[in-house]
Every structure is written in C-alpha cells, then in structure tokens.
C-alpha cells in the first residue's frame, strides 16, 4: 500500500492560512503599496463587489515600474487594476494542500488566494505554510542550498541592482562586502524605491535620483542568517517572521550559499514525486 503524504492528506481548509489584505480594483495603487509596506507582505488581493478578481504583488509593481518610464505619468495616479496580474489562480478550501502546491509550481506563484464557493476570500495559502508539512526535522538547510545566487556590493549603483533583478530569474541579491553578508536587495526594496522616485513631485528628476542612489541606501539590513544546520521547518519559520524569501548561509562571517523559498518547495515536491520519504503520515 502506498503511503499518503501529509500534503495529500491535508485539506487547504485545515491549514492556518495567512491573512489576506484586500483592495478594490478601483482604488489607486498607493493604497496597495501602503498595505504591503505596513504589514510586511508581498501581495494584496483585488476584489470587485467583494469577489476576488486579481492579485497585485511587489513583483508586479517592480516589473511594471522597471519596464518603462510610465510616459511621464506618476504611478500614484494609476488604479490598482493597472498593476494586477491578468490571470488569477486560486485554491478551494476543500482541495488538498498537494493540489495547491502543484498549482504554485505550475504557475510560478508563491501564494494562492483561498476562495470559497461564494467567491469570497478566506485567506492565503503560501509556500512557506506548506514547507513544514513536507519536511522532516532532520532535513538541513545546507542540503537544499540553491545551486547559484547573485551578490552585489553595497557601493554598487542601485541601477546595477535593478538591472540584475529585471534581467535574471533571481528575485533577491545578497549584499556582501569582502564576502561578509550585510543585507538583501530584492523585488520588495526595488518596488518601494521605484514607486517613491516616480511620485508626481519627483518624476521629472527620476534619472538624477536613480544615478545617485547606491545599493546601501535601499537594501534591507540582514537580521537573520543561517549556518546551514537549521531544519527546513526552522528556515521557513524565519522566512515568515522576517519577510525574507531568501536567506544566506554563513560560516565564519562569509556567505557560502543561500536557501530560497521557491527552490525548497520545488525540490521537496520532486523528492515526494520520486517516492522519497519527505513528510509522510
């Protein structure tokens, strides 16, 4: 008899779902930006007449603001609908956590709005909620270190960091000086910075401001680092509490790798598909 994984045995409704922060598609994008900044989240759910119609993520904001100069129009004047992802992928409370995980993998998203039969939002199921369900406590972070990662100097121009983030699949750069980790700059920091620079009172001077800024001016200071001996469960907990999707692995004050939320879940799902014992009941 084949074993049933915890993901297969657990319904989405049985999870302790993350809270969802909701905005109307008619509201302006500053409302969404402020919610994400205030609650340290990377997405808001867009509704129309209380029904879920989309999602706006910091990745959406960064992609839109970094792809063009907005034609001289301040993003503060744009509606949330202009930034929302065109295709909304949701989870149902009665589907299994396994189905939700596969949806995230197939559609390259890190969270799904959980929507009931009435079309109303219940909460969010995220990758960081699912990782502890799949991983045994003896699985160490260093076994799941990402094969590649990008670093950048704190004295580099911000424009260099923005170019790396927009032209590579990497979503976070580790800021290092002499191999010593100082912080992280990713889509979150880039989106907030670009939005602030493109406000109506500064849009004319965008190029001047962007040339002056250094990575150190906008990076998120490192508050959490891992030795590699921590469990995946502990890494997921630290990612949730810190709002980070990527954490450096550090030995003797030097970075030797990173663990990333997306790579962890993808590999755990692959191991489970191969029949390896990852988290079975």
Mean pLDDT, nearest integer?
Answer: 87
Order of helices and strands: HEHEEHHEEHEHEEHHHEHEEH
Report the top-level CATH class of the largest domain.
Alpha Beta
Radius of gyration: 20 Å
Approximate shape? flat
What's the N-to-C terminus distance? 13 Å
Helix content: 25-40%
The class by helix and strand makeup works out as alpha+beta
Q: Catalogue the unreliable spans.
A: none
> Largest sheet, if any?
4 strands, mixed
Tell me what the CATH architecture of the largest domain is.
Roll
Number of domains as seen in the coordinates:
2
Cross-sheet strand order for the largest sheet: 6-7-8-9
Helix count, DSSP H or I runs of 4 or more residues: 11
CATH topology of the largest domain: CBS-domain
Q: How would you name the CATH homologous superfamily of the largest domain? A: CBS-domain
Give the strand content.
Answer: 15-25%
**Number of beta-strand segments:** 11
What keyword list fits this structure?
single chain; 281 residues; alpha+beta; CBS-domain; 2 domains; four-stranded mixed sheet; three-stranded mixed sheet
Structure in words:
The chain is an alpha+beta fold. The protein folds into 2 domains: 6-129, CBS-domain (Roll); 141-262, CBS-domain (Roll), CATH 3.10.580.10. It contains 11 helices and 11 strands. It has helices at 6-9, 29-39, 58-67, 97-107, 127-134, 158-167, 187-197, 206-212, 215-218, 232-242, 261-273; strands at residues 22-24, 43-48, 51-57, 111-115, 121-126, 151-152, 172-177, 180-186, 220-221, 246-251, 254-260. It has a 4-stranded mixed beta sheet with strand order 6-7-8-9. Helix 5 runs antiparallel to helix 10 (232-242) and helix 5 crosses helix 11. It is flat. The model has no long low-confidence stretch (mean pLDDT 87).
């Amino acid at each position: 008899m084949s074993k049933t994984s915890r993901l297969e045995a657990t319904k989405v409704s049985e999870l302790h779902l993350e809270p969802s922060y909701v905005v109307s598609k008619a509201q302006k994008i500053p409302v969404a930006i402020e919610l994400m900044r205030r609650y340290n989240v990377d997405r808001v759910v867009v509704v129309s007449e209380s029904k879920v119609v989309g999602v706006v993520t910091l990745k959406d904001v960064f992609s839109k603001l970094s792809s063009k100069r907005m034609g001289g129009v301040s993003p503060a004047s744009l509606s949330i609908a202009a930034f929302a992802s065109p295709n909304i992928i949701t989870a149902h409370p009665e589907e299994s956590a396994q189905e939700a995980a596969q949806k995230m993998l197939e559609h390259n998203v890190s969270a799904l709005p959980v929507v009931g039969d009435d079309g109303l939002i219940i909460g969010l199921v995220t990758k960081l909620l699912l990782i502890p369900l799949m991983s045994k406590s003896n699985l160490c972070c260093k076994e799941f270190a990402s094969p590649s990662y990008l670093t950048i100097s704190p004295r580099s121009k911000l424009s260099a960091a923005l170019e790396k983030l927009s032209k590579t699949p990497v979503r976070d750069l580790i800021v290092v000086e002499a191999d010593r980790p100082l912080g992280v700059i990713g889509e979150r920091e880039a989106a907030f910075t670009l939005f602030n620079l493109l406000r109506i009172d500064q849009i004319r001077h965008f190029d001047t401001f962007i040339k002056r800024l250094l990575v150190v001016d906008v990076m998120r200071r490192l508050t959490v680092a891992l030795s590699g001996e921590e469990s995946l469960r502990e890494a997921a907990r630290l990612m949730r509490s810190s709002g980070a999707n990527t954490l450096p692995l550090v030995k003797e004050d030097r970075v030797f790798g990173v663990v990333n939320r997306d790579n962890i879940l993808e590999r755990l799902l692959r191991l489970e598909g191969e029949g390896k014992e990852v988290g079975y009941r």
